[in-house]
Give the backbone structure.
Amino acid sequence: MDVLAQQILNGLALGSVYAVFGVGFGLMLATLGVLNAAHGTFATWGALTVLYLVNDVGLGFWPALVLGVLVSGVMAVIVDFVAFQPIRRRGGDLLPALITSIGVWIFLLAAARMVTGATTSRYSPDAAPSGSFDFLGLTLGRTQLVSLLAVAVVGVGLHTLLHRTRVGAAMRAVGHSPMAASLGGVNPVLVVAVTAFLSGAVAGLAGITMGLNTSTVNFMLGEALLLKGFAAVIIGGFGDVRGTVVGGLLIGVAEVLTAQYVSGSLRDAVTFGLLLAFLVFRPRGLFGSAASMQTVRA
Amino acid sequence: MVSKLARRTAALTMAAALATTSLAACSSAGGSDSNGATKIGLIAAEQGPFAFAGASYLKGAELAAELEDVELVVEEGSEDPAKSITAFNKLTGQEGVGQVVCCVSSAVAGAMKPLATSKKVPLVVYGATTPDLEDPPFVLRPALLPQQGIAPVSARLVKELGITSAVHVTASDNDGLVAQSEAARTSTEAAGAKDLGTVKTLVADTDFSGAVTEILSKDADMVTVYTLGEAAATITKALREKGYDGVILANNAVATAPLLKSFGKTLADTYYSVEYTPASSIPAAAEFTKAYEEKYDEKPDLFASQGYVAVKYAAQGASEAGDGADAAKIADALAGIAEMDSPWGPLTFEDGQGTSEDFQVVQIDDAGVPQLWTGAGA
């Protein structure tokens, strides 16, 4: 087995989870102008929902995954209507929304802690994908395959939605100027709801795949994803799905290779070193435009 | 006006402090109450991060108290340092409580150690495994250190299973786990297995795909895994899923009931060393198992045996100190115990730390159930 190739594959699988989460996080930031600190909890609640449905209700993993994704999406819509819409109506910008999102974050995190009893669980081994298979001379876990498929579906799907459909055009228009979009016949409230739903649903999917890959589901699951997802958005570029996917994959590969060839204790240092380097030398990220940066600043 | 109020407040505070001190002096820590009943304080962990083990610890402790005819005074500490310190102060403020049994985690035991030493009240540690925690006569640990069993068991596996090479996995930011991994590394190497290196993870890690690839790349006959229980189970599962069919010796924390339930047969064929299992052939273990089953109608686990041994040891100390002995005398008596019988075999003490020669080897079977391993030819 070629260790380097195998580790790159492991890194891509890990990075695909970060990428999926980052895509949802970036969608909310670029389109709705919300730097949502509570976004990690959508991932946590998605994973907890699937855990409950699989282990306690006895539902199959795949239908449970769909329901978990839906629950996270609906949760994001509710949070947006309760916490962010009032700020938007008053013309508030990034900072009030960020402060509000911290309150939502604390509430949802505490609720997750309460329902889990602060213990760690995992999907029943017989009910969730497990095992591995050989792929081009490398070994690929079925849980890793789920993550890679997830990033492919989410990346291609969201990019196509945003750039090839009328819904995507409406989302981008609302992200640029809700008033102008409204004058053009777009219903901003509906578009915001759809965007929040997609953003939360994608976070839920990331949480579910993270729980699957690490055999660990607890109330803190989404918190690690939050920082890595944010780093993926910065590295890839605000508002660009392709960039966030590449950023997430890059972080995953960098983490795994650092652990293999340098030191496991430097994994996070490399990730956040990359983040810092992009913020200082190329703040628009790999694929971001100056215009998208302006949107965020505005 | 303000200064008068401040003086009055200060005077009231002083009076309250004096009254508290006087009351504390009246109930100064001693080993028995005015009726002569021997009392032992216990800080329980039925809630909090170690709740999965806390109930078993308490049941074992209560069984020992019943058999040794001592009164157990229980306060919940939830394995939280602040709560445990409050519980310790409350227990030692009660009449007749001359010693306290506590602590699953090393962090809490470390927080309690200076308190016990400064208050001169013996602390009997029932679970924490960080090295050098014991400090007689006030901090004593009958609980065995895992590395005591890891060394002979890993050497035995190397010899009986014909292992020629081993790779080791540890959580490099946890001293206790590093010590356990080091014990496995040195003993397997001494027994003839080539050391192929140590793969380092961190306690907070949840993704082990890179570590597993690194382990597999070594192509070793044996992998020893000394990380926290969840991580050890996750790594073991990932190794098996990726086709590793060699010997895996892991931290015995993989065999806690919650992990066995959720990982099940994915842990099949994993070995671990442990001082107690219900299947143990040690006579005192069989007696303990029988008494426990009669009292609770369930099988005891390792944690129950640790609670049992700690209270048995504390009761022996109180008994040797004599009726009405104060905390200092009990501490001296505890520190003076050189040997006692236990479900872990004859337990000997050196500088307040229990040791045993009778560690068991357990192998998880294909159904995910731990079974006593009696040797390669059995």
The two ends of chain B are 87 Å apart (CA to CA). Chain B touches chain A at residues 48-49, 51-52, 172-173, 200-202, 205-211, 213-214, 216-217, 230, 233-234, 237-238, 241-243, 258, 262-266 (CB under 8 Å). The domain at 147-274 of chain B is CATH 3.40.50.2300 (Rossmann fold).
